[in-house]
Specification:
alpha/beta, two-stranded parallel sheet, 5 helices, energy transducer activity, transmembrane
């Protein structure tokens, strides 16, 4: 028995050699090339027949039988005839007296103007009328009446002094009444944050809503009565309440009275400062809502 250690070195090599791999790869490549050459064929595409074109003309007469080979297309069948060796377009049999190969623009001559016959002027006959003698007109005498003289009014100095004193007293009285008149500034819900006293109105609204929700009318909560009304609240300079008026009723006397009571409970308010310092009375007009959820709010 021969052991592997007794074999020569060239026979005792284990595994696949690089030469074996190269030979196997060349063999596979040759098989693939043969398969491609044998399996894939090339064929030339037959050219498509070219369609014939025919010119279009007008036939001069109609034939019962269609020609086997037509030279032109026309509205009717027509058998060819004549003495020409090549095809020619049918033409009219009439011969023009004048022939030319080029087309020229022809303008017709202007029409002759009709002759006007001049007639001799007729002699005018003039007649002279006898002159009419005019008598010189006499100037008319215009009578002018003298305008009546305006009477100069007479004034009593004592009466004028009393009237002037009365007017001065009346003017002084009006000035005093105007000076005593309070300076009122009215604000509505349409005022913006840039309006005079807008900050005061916003703080006042928050206070009314807070007091109103704490003192919401119990009967309205129990009976589910809702609505909205429009109030005018007048506030004095020191913040005290001047008056509360219902401008638009809610239709529910309970809600109208509750809104007035809430405003009176929230008084007094903050005194006027800042841009409201020169105001004697502030009037605020807002719409108040008693809405579902038993909430009082103002828009």
């Amino acid at each position: 028995m021969t052991l592997p250690s007794d074999l020569p070195p060239e026979l005792s090599h284990k595994g696949v050699r690089a030469a074996d791999r190269l030979g196997f790869a060349l063999f596979v490549a040759a098989l693939l090339h043969i398969a491609v050459i044998v399996g894939v064929g090339f064929s030339m595409e037959a050219p498509k027949p070219v369609s014939k074109t025919l010119e279009i003309t007008l036939s001069t007469f109609k034939s019962e039988k269609a020609p086997e080979k037509a030279d032109f297309l026309a509205q009717d069948n027509q058998q060819g005839s004549g003495t020409l060796d090549k095809k020619a377009v049918p033409k009219t049999t009439e011969v023009a007296p004048f022939q030319d190969n080029s087309v020229k623009k022809v303008t017709p001559p202007p029409a002759a103007k009709p002759e006007q016959t001049q007639t001799a002027p007729k002699a005018a006959v003039t007649t002279v009328a006898p002159a009419v003698k005019k008598n010189p007109s006499q100037p008319q005498k215009v009578k002018t009446e003298a305008a009546p003289k305006a009477s100069i009014p007479t004034f009593d100095s004592s009466q004028l002094s009393s009237e002037i004193s009365s007017l001065e007293a009346e003017l002084a009285n009006e000035q005093q009444l105007y000076a005593k008149r309070p300076k009122i500034y009215r604000m509505s819900a349409a005022s913006t944050m840039r309006d005079k006293g807008a900050w005061y109105k916003e703080d006042w609204r928050k206070k009314i809503e807070r007091i109103g929700n704490l003192n919401y009318p119990e009967q309205a909560r129990r009976e589910k009565i809702y609505g909205k009304l429009r109030l005018l609240v007048s506030i004095n300079r020191d913040g005290s309440l001047h008056e509360v008026l219902v401008l638009e009723s809610s239709g529910q006397p309970l809600l109208d009275q509750a809104a007035q009571r809430i405003v009176r409970l929230a008084a007094p308010f903050a005194p006027f400062t800042g841009d409201l310092a020169d105001i004697d009375r502030l009037e605020i007009i807002r719409t108040w809502k008693f809405a579902e959820g038993d909430r009082l709010s103002s828009n």
